[in-house]
Amino acid sequence: MILRRLSDAFRKQDWFTVAVEILIVLLGVFLGLQVNNWNEARAEGERSRGYLSRIRAELVADMTELERHRGLWQVGANEGYAAVSYAETGARGGATDWEVLRSFLHASQSHQLSFADTTYSELRSAGELRLIADADLRSALAD
What we know:
Layout: H1 2-12, H2 15-89, H3 97-107, H4 118-126, H5 135-142
């Protein structure tokens, strides 16, 4: 329909109508592209918020696990001090043989801590770190 009107305007050499028709087509294409860009930006924002929410949940879980491990490490350190004290001086401090043996056992234990970074690794491997707009936050997560 537009093509027919445009060809009629060319035949009649009605340049104003040709210009208006071309302007309408260009405006339609521009608006279509702009709406598409807005939709992509909205979808990208939603993905970004989803990733940030998942990263936050992982950080909360990491902090909880760190607190739990800190207690285990403190017990190991206290038992280690008691074991070293017995090894160096022979002083038991009122502890039985089993308590001294337990101190050596607890001092020798290692409690590994691993942080959850699944979401950050996913972002990095997919090449979508740009979804985190804040450069300082990206740097802090990398550290």
